[in-house]
Amino acid sequence: MTADPKTPETPADPAAAEPRLQHFPVPFFAAVMGLSGLTLALHAAGMQTISRTALVATVLVFAVLAAVYALKAMRYPQAILAEWRHPVKLAFFPAVSISLLLIATALQPVSHDSARLVWLIGALGQGILTLAVLSNWIGHRAFQTIHISPAWFIPAVGNVVAPVAGVQLGFPETSWVFFSAGLVFWIVLLVLVMNRLVFHDPLPGRMVPTLAILIAPPAVGFLAWLQLNGDVIDAFARILYGAALVFTALAATQVAKLRGLPFALSWWALSFPVAALTIATLRFGTLISSPLHTLAGNVGVGVLCLIVGGLVYRTVRAVLRGEICQPE
């Protein structure tokens, strides 16, 4: 009697056999935005040594993520295309160019020439990605209202980031173009996002942290306006800073919804907006000689360190457990 031939085992979940590289997500670059924001906040608070250490870490993280994503693009181009066609992930592609613009801003005090080169690459990428995303939005695809989330602000935020370093790096007119584009599309997207939040189903659990992104456009816009307007706190600057405070208060009312939610890369959406508000508060306090705002900004730096530290820990743990880079 002959033994039955052995048949190879098949995994209970066919998706488990898929390479994790195939599912390496473009939203991972939101972590670089958060780390860059922390670097800039530490610099604004006068912690130069720690800020430069954070800058090195940020550049290394960006290099690793960029290398892995480039490898994914070479081996699994269809997976990249699927992300580009995804109504939520599409908005995260400009996070790559935004990361470069933020790194350029952090590099400026260290090396003007290096910062200028990185800014040019980031600005070119941001311009191309902004037009590509907007073209996709208004193209032939049938987007639904439920697909809209605060993550859709990311392309607009990227444009407003450009002037923060662009003016001092010698690109004032280009910075004005980016600022104008970011400001106009922020207003348009704000209407769409608020309509979705008020009149339609609540955000899915993993997208709840993206509510913090509401803070970023006015906070970064305030910093960009200061660069374009010669560090003058005028009426428009106060409107932008005041709007950032209002959206911060609004986002704070939703913090309770975060309890019990499983960790996802979307949690990194909490970091950069807090960093932008912290830096804006420190700048506001300095320019109007307000000890209260300066104190609030320094407290913000401490809170930001706790947020980023917690996110780094949760991300590393999730990576080691194989919870990231899985099919959705």
From TrEMBL:
<dbReference type="InterPro" id="IPR052951">
    <property type="entry name" value="Tellurite_res_ion_channel"/>
</dbReference>
<feature type="transmembrane region" description="Helical">
    <location>
        <begin position="28"/>
        <end position="47"/>
    </location>
</feature>
<feature type="transmembrane region" description="Helical">
    <location>
        <begin position="292"/>
        <end position="313"/>
    </location>
</feature>
<feature type="transmembrane region" description="Helical">
    <location>
        <begin position="53"/>
        <end position="71"/>
    </location>
</feature>
<dbReference type="InterPro" id="IPR004695">
    <property type="entry name" value="SLAC1/Mae1/Ssu1/TehA"/>
</dbReference>
<feature type="transmembrane region" description="Helical">
    <location>
        <begin position="151"/>
        <end position="171"/>
    </location>
</feature>
<keyword id="KW-0812">Transmembrane</keyword>
<dbReference type="InterPro" id="IPR038665">
    <property type="entry name" value="Voltage-dep_anion_channel_sf"/>
</dbReference>
<feature type="transmembrane region" description="Helical">
    <location>
        <begin position="265"/>
        <end position="286"/>
    </location>
</feature>
<feature type="transmembrane region" description="Helical">
    <location>
        <begin position="117"/>
        <end position="139"/>
    </location>
</feature>
<feature type="transmembrane region" description="Helical">
    <location>
        <begin position="177"/>
        <end position="199"/>
    </location>
</feature>
<feature type="transmembrane region" description="Helical">
    <location>
        <begin position="211"/>
        <end position="229"/>
    </location>
</feature>
<keyword id="KW-0472">Membrane</keyword>
<dbReference type="Pfam" id="PF03595">
    <property type="entry name" value="SLAC1"/>
</dbReference>
<protein>
    <submittedName>
        <fullName>C4-dicarboxylate ABC transporter</fullName>
    </submittedName>
</protein>
<feature type="transmembrane region" description="Helical">
    <location>
        <begin position="91"/>
        <end position="111"/>
    </location>
</feature>
<dbReference type="GO" id="GO:0005886">
    <property type="term" value="C:plasma membrane"/>
</dbReference>
<feature type="transmembrane region" description="Helical">
    <location>
        <begin position="235"/>
        <end position="253"/>
    </location>
</feature>
<keyword id="KW-1133">Transmembrane helix</keyword>
<dbReference type="GO" id="GO:0046583">
    <property type="term" value="F:monoatomic cation efflux transmembrane transporter activity"/>
</dbReference>
